[in-house]
């Protein structure tokens, strides 16, 4: 396996300084050794080195002033291969992270939880059943937008419904040009649709709530043991081993990072991404007459005006309000507003339907 197979590119090579490069036997070498983090634990982590092995992991320790919380699966580090000491963390191409700003934390206490680093694509996994929720998808789309990572909505369990159209259309309506893939995660041929994001050097992170089929997808993509459901990979002697790592090599040549601890996000975790995902609404809301406008029925509300003029889609505005409604970190007052707004929208739609009926 080469460094490039592991995801190394000019972006990382350009961060090396002269003293990182040595030559032995006339061959250029990078010392300390570039390695990619495959698992983060409490006091140490594990990493895969691209040179001279076939994917075996090595235990590493963070530099003195840092702890493992400063590192994410997918990170590139330079490390001393003999002692396992990390010398330096390389700048990230992308990082999926959530802002931990819970209701009991003050503004100054904001901190980030790292989810995955140096990822090209985020597979947002949901299925054709009750766990398909637009507000859940919106939050993960916001996460991808915030990180500058390409989102792909993967809808599993296509085989359990007569038609997948309803799910597909709802997902597509979330954002223009959004990529949506519908499949049976247990079917190898269906999974080939995902290969285009999983080629050599490419990295994908996988998120989804419990039971949607993440392990099934991962096992299928990696060509692993479906029967036992365990993640089995070849160690450096070619033997099969069950691993608990989070960075998995897949059949198409790339890497998939699973994120078992991240099944749910709160609005506050991804505020910047929400701002981008709903850019038109965020921008228009700056022109509301009242600074603290709740966009419910206030005079001079630029959002309601936008809807009535057709400049803002009513369903997008409803989604935006719904996000606040489903968020348990929102204040009581904000949630009431969101409820009020939803009811108003419903009433308006009812009137519209009635009028239409009368015209006939
Ligand atoms: N019919 C059908 N079943 C599926 C599909 N994908 C997953 N399943 C089944 O759904 C169940 C849950 O799948 P998992 O892959 O374990 O789901 P998960 O998201 O990893 O769940 P957690 O480990 O709880 O996070 C298993 O019994 C799978 O066989 C699919 O596309 N079609
Ligand atoms: Zn307003």
Description of the structure:
By secondary structure, this protein is α/β, with parallel strands linked by helices. The protein folds into three domains: 10-89, OB fold (Dihydrolipoamide Acetyltransferase, E2P) (Beta Barrel), CATH 2.40.50; 95-258, P-loop containing nucleotide triphosphate hydrolases (Rossmann fold), CATH 3.40.50.300; 278-359, Ribonucleotide Reductase Protein R1, domain 1, CATH 1.10.40. It is built from ten helices and 17 strands. The protein has helices at 10-13, 134-147, 165-172, 188-191, 214-222, 271-277, 279-285, 302-309, 314-326, 332-359; strands spanning 21-24, 27-30, 33-40, 45-49, 57-60, 76-79, 86-89, 95-100, 111-117, 121-127, 150-156, 179-182, 203-208, 232-234, 240-242, 247-249, 255-258. It has a six-stranded mixed beta sheet, sandwiched between helices. A five-stranded antiparallel beta sheet has the order 5-4-3-6-7, with no helix packed on it. A two-stranded antiparallel sheet has the order 1-2. Helix 2 links the parallel strand 10 (121-127) and strand 11. Helix 2 (134-147) packs across helix 9 (314-326) and helix 6 (271-277) packs across helix 7. The longest helix is centred in the last third of the chain and has 28 residues, at 332-359. The chain is globular, with a radius of gyration of 24 Å. The chain binds guanosine-5'-triphosphate and zinc ion. Residues 285, 288, 293, 295, 298, 301-303 line the site of zinc ion (ZN).
């Amino acid at each position: 396996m080469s460094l490039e197979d592991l995801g190394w590119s000019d972006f990382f090579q350009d961060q090396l300084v002269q003293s990182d490069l040595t030559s032995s036997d006339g061959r250029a070498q990078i010392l300390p050794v570039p390695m990619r983090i495959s698992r983060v634990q409490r006091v140490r982590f594990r990493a895969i080195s691209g040179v001279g092995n076939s994917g075996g992991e090595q235990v590493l320790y963070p530099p003195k002033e840092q702890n493992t919380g400063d590192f994410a699966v997918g990170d590139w580090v330079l490390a001393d291969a003999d002692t396992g000491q990390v010398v330096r963390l390389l700048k990230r191409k992308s990082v999926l992270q959530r802002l931990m700003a819970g209701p009991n934390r003050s503004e100054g206490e904001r901190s980030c939880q790292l989810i995955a680093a140096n990822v090209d694509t985020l597979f947002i996994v949901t299925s054709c059943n009750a766990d398909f929720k637009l507000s859940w998808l919106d939050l993960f789309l916001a996460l991808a937008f915030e990180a500058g990572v390409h989102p792909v909505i993967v809808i599993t369990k296509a085989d359990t419904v007569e038609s997948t159209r309803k799910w597909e259309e709802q997902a597509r309506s979330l954002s223009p040009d959004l990529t949506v893939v519908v499949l049976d995660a247990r079917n190898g041929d269906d999974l080939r649709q995902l290969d285009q994001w999983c080629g050599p050097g490419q990295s994908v992170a996988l998120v989804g709530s419990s039971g949607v089929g993440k392990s099934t997808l991962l096992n299928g993509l990696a060509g692993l043991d479906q029967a036992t459901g365990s993640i089995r990979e070849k160690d450096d002697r070619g033997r099969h081993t069950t691993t608990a790592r989070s960075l998995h090599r897949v059949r198409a040549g790339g890497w998939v990072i699973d994120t078992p601890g991240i099944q749910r996000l709160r609005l506050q975790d991804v505020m910047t991404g929400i701002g981008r995902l709903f850019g038109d609404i965020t921008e228009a809301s700056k022109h509301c007459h009242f600074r603290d406008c709740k966009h419910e029925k206030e005079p001079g509300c630029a959002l309601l005006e936008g809807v009535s003029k057709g400049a803002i889609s009513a369903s997008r505005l409803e989604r935006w309000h719904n996000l606040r409604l489903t968020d348990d970190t929102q204040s009581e007052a904000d949630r009431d507003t969101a409820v009020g707004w939803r009811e108003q929208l419903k009433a308006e739609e009812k009137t519209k339907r009635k009028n239409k009926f009368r015209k006939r």
